[in-house]
Amino acid sequence: MKLIVCEDYNELSKKAAELVAKQVNEKHDCILGLATGSTPVGMYEELAQMNKRGEVDFEEVKSFNLDEYYPIDDDNPQSYHYFMKENLFSKINIKISNTHLLNGRTSDTIKECREYDEKIAQSGGIDLQILGIGQNGHIGFNEPDDSLFANTHLTGLTESTINANARFFDSIDEVPKQALTMGVGSILKARKIILLASGASKQEAVLKLLDNAVSTDNPASLLKVHPDVVLICDKEAYTGNRLGVDIGGTQIKFGVLNSKNEFVAKESIKTECKNEQELLNLIAEKCEKLKNEFNVTFVGVGAPGIIKNGKISAVNLPLCKTDIKAYLEEKLNVSVKVSNDANCAALGEAKLGAGKDVKNLVMITLGTGIGGGIIADGKIYEGGGSAGEIGHMCIDPFGTECACGKKGCWEKYASASALLKLAESEAKKAPESLLAKIFDEKGVSGESFFEAEKQKCPVAKGTFDIYLTYLAAGINGLKNIFDPDMIVLSGGLANAGELLLNPLKEKLDSDLQIEISVLKNDAGICGAALLK
Ligand code: PGA
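A: This is the predicted complex of the input protein with 2-phosphoglycolic acid.
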């Protein structure tokens, strides 16, 4: 099944009309299988315009419609006879005697259906069949069931279809409960098929069609066995795959999420370019490759520092001159969003990680500094653009000087680096301690520290207690301000897991839910992809 994703309904209508016109121009006396419903209306309008401009001629074309309500009179404005006259036949030069629809007033439905199939066969079979898709995956009035009819037949409508079609009637009670429809076998006999899907209400049907196996529960899925089907969707109906890019000082990570939010690809490259243009080219090239390979319709970018007007000001990246959003949009021809990497990580964690289904979350990244991301009501809270810089929240105005130029920033006391700095100085004061010995042997690292802590070294324990007091003070402050449903800890130090979490909980306000990041290094790419 070939997939064409259009920007909007207009483009979808034009694209579909072009394909129909191409068919008619290639074979002037071709047989078209036509559909009703709101989706093909724009395509019919386009065809009418093209016919008027002399770009397509229906003089010799024959048509067979897919279905008709039963019972219904031809002149009932809700009948498909009426629909076709209004939306197409009266606007093009097709001969009415060449158009065929099932008779919604027949007293012998079995004969009507048999003769309809025979007429299609006698005229040489359908060259091009147009189809819409129901929210429940129906095609024509072939509703999901344990088994499906091959030939044209009388069928009952499901509740979902009656509800969906009620919009065309004055009341739901007026929607006919039965219809005559071509069967899936009749549809599959068409030489070519165009399936149209427009609008968010078709998202799930499209998703199931593309992702799930062939099943009578999803009649549209049977089209997968046909060799020449084009599915034309607009962007509302097809969410497509989303690419998340996490730009870091040492590496750039790329991850493609499908519409079920599962990874279909993950790659990374080194951030080893010296200048802005080189780095942008590198990113764009990789995005382009993944876009083409995985049908990417959106790119989200997470980057450190402050993002303003698509420009990234981060000390460790040469990306401050170019509007990366505009640059990538031009190169890739898909929509792009850029946000701070800690915000992206928080969004990823809130949607797919520890905070799945949680609406308000603060993520704290304990690394060289402290990064933060705030999710309020399921969305990133950016404030004026740089909200979430929780590492620079002042906890002691007379305290240690920070790289930002101010004094007493939280990250000077509660980051992973702060813990190691404190531990190193405490170990120096107590050279006989186990902590000092492990540091001497294995070097100063989080792992060495926790080894001493696990072995109950009193110096390590004392150090950790001071550290946790600082960490808890900040977290309790964040709780007072945001009252989140959950706090998530990430970054190198969070790898300590329970060793960090259990003693920390004792110092926190008791009703605070605090978890370790589940997505770990993937949180950034997930969140970037989810910026859409
Ligand atoms: P719609 O119907 O075009 O009105 O959405 C399509 C269908 O149910 O087949």
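The radius of gyration is 31 Å. The first strand starts at residue 2 and ends at 6.
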